[in-house]
């Protein structure tokens, strides 16, 4: 080997090392939540229990992975984009036991609630499926992982303290199941303080263990979600805002988000050394619906050219089975006969409930740079 080659190799390897230190400012990323963050746990949890799962079927995953991965989207989620931006591999779902969790784990499960199954049963809410995946169950999985982790890692507290925790979104499903059980919007809102207290206590249990970097995402604007628009549509124009969203249903999310922000302020006072951020899913979705023509360049990590969001029918679902929003309760994305739009990147909503990877990309950028997460996830090195 010539001297020049050797020097070059040394240069490249030191450059790579410097680069990887710079671009991986955390030891690991841990993610909790529901379908907005699940990267494959739900499909593993119910395999063999449920006959078939739409999230495990085409066209899920069509844009990025080219196959269904258990993500509720055509491609990557916010957690995936955040991992990429921080120089991490995609964080593996905890229930795929064969994975390497040294860079973190994702405990999120589609349909997960903040409150436990028992809570719903005690309140006679039978609309919740019997899947044990609540926030506390996910924290239990984290404890399980931690107990094996901390045997090999010298200073576990330090390790966790230098890891990023994405804790949520939680709560959206709690409200959905209450609505499905026939509760009115006003009745559902009575549960918001209970949900927030539960989330706050859980976040605090992590902070007590030495967690120093935490993002607590809020709810999305439920009244702009096509399944809600389809199930609870109104003949009264007054019920809709200028974007075509159901105002009263959005008010569940805003109540939740207001209380969550208050809880975060209290947590910051109690744990001043920790960075506790609010992760906003609400405003970015409103922004996308409102100003979609302005979002023409996808900022990050896209394999293909992005044409920008379509200016027409922003509430229209990309993958669905007909109807005013292309959302059909009896023919949903993933079922044979449901069809995906040609260019998912020009849609905001993917399947009537979840967003497209293009929309998640914008949200991730917002969080990383601090427009919707304060303080921002990307910290100065
Ligand atoms: C639930 O239903 C049972 C039986 O109908 C009733 O006795 C109980 O009071 C109900 N509980 C609540 C919290 O509504
Ligand atoms: C759910 O799982 C938790 C923890 O594993 C357990 O304590 C609880 O009893 C389970 N609940 C149900 C309804 O299966
Ligand atoms: C919804 O799907 C069902 C079942 O495939 C179909 O019969 C119906 O026509 C669809 N509705 C609309 C509005 O397309």
TrEMBL record:
<keyword id="KW-0732">Signal</keyword>
<dbReference type="InterPro" id="IPR001087">
    <property type="entry name" value="GDSL"/>
</dbReference>
<comment type="similarity">
    <text>Belongs to the 'GDSL' lipolytic enzyme family.</text>
</comment>
<keyword id="KW-0325">Glycoprotein</keyword>
<dbReference type="Pfam" id="PF00657">
    <property type="entry name" value="Lipase_GDSL"/>
</dbReference>
<dbReference type="GO" id="GO:0016788">
    <property type="term" value="F:hydrolase activity, acting on ester bonds"/>
</dbReference>
<protein>
    <submittedName>
        <fullName>Uncharacterized protein</fullName>
    </submittedName>
</protein>
<dbReference type="InterPro" id="IPR036514">
    <property type="entry name" value="SGNH_hydro_sf"/>
</dbReference>
<dbReference type="InterPro" id="IPR035669">
    <property type="entry name" value="SGNH_plant_lipase-like"/>
</dbReference>
<keyword id="KW-0378">Hydrolase</keyword>
<feature type="signal peptide">
    <location>
        <begin position="1"/>
        <end position="18"/>
    </location>
</feature>
């Amino acid at each position: 080997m010539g001297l020049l080659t050797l020097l070059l190799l040394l240069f490249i390897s030191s450059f790579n090392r410097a680069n990887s230190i710079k671009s991986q400012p955390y030891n690991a990323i841990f993610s909790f939540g529901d379908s907005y963050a699940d990267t494959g746990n739900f499909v593993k949890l119910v395999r063999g229990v449920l006959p078939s799962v739409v999230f495990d079927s085409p066209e899920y995953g069509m844009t990025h992975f080219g196959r269904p991965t258990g993500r509720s989207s055509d491609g990557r989620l916010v957690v995936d984009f955040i991992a990429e931006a921080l120089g991490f591999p995609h964080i593996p779902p905890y229930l795929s036991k064969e994975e390497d969790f040294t860079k973190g784990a994702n405990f999120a499960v589609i349909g997960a609630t903040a409150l436990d199954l028992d809570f719903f049963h005690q309140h006679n809410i039978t609309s919740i499926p019997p899947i044990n995946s609540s926030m506390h169950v996910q924290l239990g999985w984290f404890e399980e992982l931690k107990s094996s982790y901390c045997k090999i890692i010298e200073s576990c507290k330090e390790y966790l303290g230098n890891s990023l925790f994405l804790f949520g979104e939680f709560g959206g499903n709690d409200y959905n199941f209450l609505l499905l059980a026939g509760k009115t919007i006003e009745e559902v809102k009575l549960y918001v303080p209970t949900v927030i207290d539960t989330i706050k206590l859980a976040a605090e249990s992590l902070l007590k263990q030495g967690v120093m970097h935490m993002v607590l995402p809020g709810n999305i604007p439920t009244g702009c979600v096509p399944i809600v628009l389809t199930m609870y549509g109104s003949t009264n124009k007054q019920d809709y805002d200028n974007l075509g969203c159901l105002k009263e249903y959005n008010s569940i999310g805003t109540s939740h988000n207001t209380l969550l922000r208050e809880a975060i302020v209290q947590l910051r006072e109690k744990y001043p050394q920790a960075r506790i951020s609010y992760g906003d899913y609400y405003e970015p979705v409103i922004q996308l619906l409102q100003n979609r023509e302005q979002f023409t360049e996808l900022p990050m990590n896209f394999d293909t050219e992005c044409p920008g969001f379509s200016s027409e029918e922003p509430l229209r679902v990309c993958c669905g089975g007909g109807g005013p929003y292309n959302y059909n309760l009896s023919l949903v994305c993933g079922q044979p006969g449901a069809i995906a739009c040609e260019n998912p990147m020009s849609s905001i909503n993917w399947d009537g409930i979840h967003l497209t990877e293009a929309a998640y990309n914008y949200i991730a950028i917002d969080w990383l740079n601090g427009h919707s997460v304060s303080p921002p996830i990307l910290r100065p090195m």
